[in-house]
From TrEMBL:
Annotated organism of origin: Halopenitus malekzadehii
Gene assigned in the entry: rtcB
Function: Essential for tRNA splicing and maturation. Acts by directly joining spliced tRNA halves to mature-sized tRNAs. Joins RNA with 2',3'-cyclic-phosphate or 3'-phosphate ends to RNA with 5'-hydroxy ends.
Cofactor(s) the record lists: Mn(2+)
List of residues binding Mn(2+) 2: 239, 334
Biological process annotations from GO: tRNA splicing, via endonucleolytic cleavage and ligation
Reactions mediated catalytically: a 3'-end 3'-phospho-ribonucleotide-RNA + a 5'-end dephospho-ribonucleoside-RNA + GTP = a ribonucleotidyl-ribonucleotide-RNA + GMP + diphosphate; a 3'-end 2',3'-cyclophospho-ribonucleotide-RNA + a 5'-end dephospho-ribonucleoside-RNA + GTP + H2O = a ribonucleotidyl-ribonucleotide-RNA + GMP + diphosphate + H(+)
Enzyme Commission code: 6.5.1.-
Protein name: tRNA-splicing ligase RtcB
ATP-binding is among the record's keywords: no
Highest taxon of source: Archaea
UniProt-listed InterPro entries: RtcB, RtcB-like_sf
Key word Protein biosynthesis present: no
EC primary class: ligase
């Protein structure tokens, strides 16, 4: 039996691409890592494995704590982590969800072909950068008063459609139809609401982006047909979250939980795993506030979609929907906890499934999937770096048994932002992408481009290959960047 050691963490190989940290004192369950040999080497270079082992100490953790193939060190709980925790006897942990609540991705299809945008890349990237707010701080497509923010937190994408920022079909092509019904705006801290008021419809900074892409490969034609994807097609990928509102919500609840539930905190190996016991007042309030922040993030991406449609309509002198076919393929979250029912050891159990830098990947037949995709499986969107492809997957038939219906969320970082700025110069990265790959990038600063250089990320092809081999997320199509805007 193959074993590997990284510091004081020992793993044994269960089968191809599956590595287990055996249960030891204090661990409620074992932990598992889904990775190839080379991806495991990268994952073992930081504190990811220690954080994953620590996560098994959370009360109610069920079956395994999991790390997806794009995993890397996070705040307390690893990015790429999945933890399914008993919803009655366990807990809910803000650190196992992340500060950017409902950071997620959506893909917008078009009926344009790559040839339609060749020679117009600079015009397109400049127009998108000028019209879509990005960067640190405030500034959004909509500046909302308190009533507007409350409505967004309560109703999600429904609010945006009623306000004229989309079409009805956007609802059915969004996870949960763009609205978490458990949202409780009254539990979102006022400071969070104040921060969110002037950021509605903005990319933010860091790894968030809007990228125009072309479909380069189709691997499962029947599924691609159901998704409306074909080689040469132009699509748009949008990646952002709940901005300052989500960050402030997470921050405030972490502090409150640390004070209120210090007894539980003392039992955990890392205070950054601070959790509220299921059934407690704080667990109820945090879940309601988190769901409201989820709604805010969906509206954020919806408004960016609306503005993107407007820009495309102006540049190509056509109606974005009727002429350009700019319909939403899907929107899926990857920083979220949801109460879901799963079969564990032959019995149905209600679980808080924490996905932090991990994507829901339900197989065909699951009722949560939009009806239009229910026969083929849920779309899963996996962004790569600016110099590599991205992928569309579908939820694999093994995902419920292997990963609580989850897979990776992207390529996953290899390098810290600080190290990236030491190793790369933003202007050089920008020039190389344009000259060598014909990818046009525009950002608020060269530092942002350096932080997001292609060399900063793992090999997205390998990440996706692991997902496909395990049957948790099946490859459907691959895309490649045309132009990209960042904060």
């Amino acid at each position: 039996m193959t074993t590997r050691e990284f510091g004081d963490v020992r793993l044994r190989k269960v089968r191809e691409h599956v590595w287990e940290i055996p249960r030891e004192d204090g661990m409620n369950v074992p932990a598992r890592v889904f990775a190839s040999e080379s991806l495991l080497e990268a994952i073992g270079e930081d504190d990811t494995l220690t954080q994953l082992r620590n996560a098994t100490h959370l009360p109610g953790m069920t079956k395994y704590a999991l790390c997806m193939p794009d995993g890397h060190q996070g705040y307390g709980f690893p990015v790429g982590g999945v933890g399914a925790i008993d919803a009655e006897e366990g807990c809910i942990s803000p650190g196992a969800i992340g500060y950017d609540i409902n950071c997620g991705v959506r893909m917008v299809k078009t009926n344009l072909e790559y040839g339609d945008v060749r020679g117009r890349e600079e015009e397109l990237v400049n127009a998108l950068f000028d019209r879509i707010p990005s960067g640190l701080g405030g500034g959004g497509i909509v500046t909302g008063d308190s009533d507007t923010v409350e409505a967004i937190l309560e109703r999600g994408v429904e609010w945006a459609i009623d306000a004229g920022y989309g079409v009805e079909s956007d609802l059915e092509h969004c996870e949960d139809e763009g609205r978490r019904p458990d949202a409780r705006p009254e539990f979102v801290p006022q400071k969070a609401k104040d921060r969110g008021r002037n950021q509605i419809g903005s990319l933010g900074s860091g790894n968030h982006f809007l990228e125009v892409q072309r479909v380069t490969d189709v691997f499962r034609k029947g599924v691609a047909d159901a998704y409306g994807l074909e080689p040469g097609q132009i699509v748009v990928l949008i990646h952002c979250g709940s901005r300052g509102l989500g960050h402030q919500t997470c921050t405030d609840y972490l502090r409150r939980i640390e004070k209120r539930h210090g007894d539980l905190l003392e039992e955990l190996p890392d205070k950054e795993l601070a959790a509220a016991p299921a059934g407690s007042e704080l667990a109820y309030e945090y879940y309601g506030a988190m769901c409201a922040a989820i709604n805010y993030a969906w509206v954020n991406r919806q408004l960016i979609t609306h503005r993107t449609r407007t820009v495309f309509g102006e540049i190509f002198d056509a109606d974005p929907i009727d002429d350009l076919g700019m319909e939403l393929l899907y929107d899926v979250a990857h920083n979220i906890a949801k109460r879901e029912t799963h079969v564990v050891d032959g019995e149905e159990r209600d679980l808080y499934v924490h996905r932090k830098g991990a994507t829901r990947a339900f197989p065909a037949g699951r009722e949560e999937i939009p009806e239009v995709y229910r026969d083929v499986g849920q779309p899963v969107i996996i962004p790569g770096s600016m110099g590599a492809g991205s992928y569309v997957l579908r939820g694999g038939e093994n995902s419920l048994d292997v990963s609580f219906g989850s897979t990776a969320h992207g390529a996953g970082r290899l390098m810290s932002r600080t190290q990236a700025k030491r190793d790369f110069w933003g202007g050089d990265v920008q020039d190389d992408l344009k000259e060598q790959e014909h990818v046009y990038v525009k950002a608020q600063s060269g530092a942002t481009i350096a932080e997001e250089a292609p060399g900063v990320y793992k090999d997205v092809d390998e990440v996706v290959d692991v997902s496909d081999a395990l049957g948790i997320g099946d490859t459907v199509a691959r895309t490649f960047p045309v132009c990209n805007i960042k904060g």
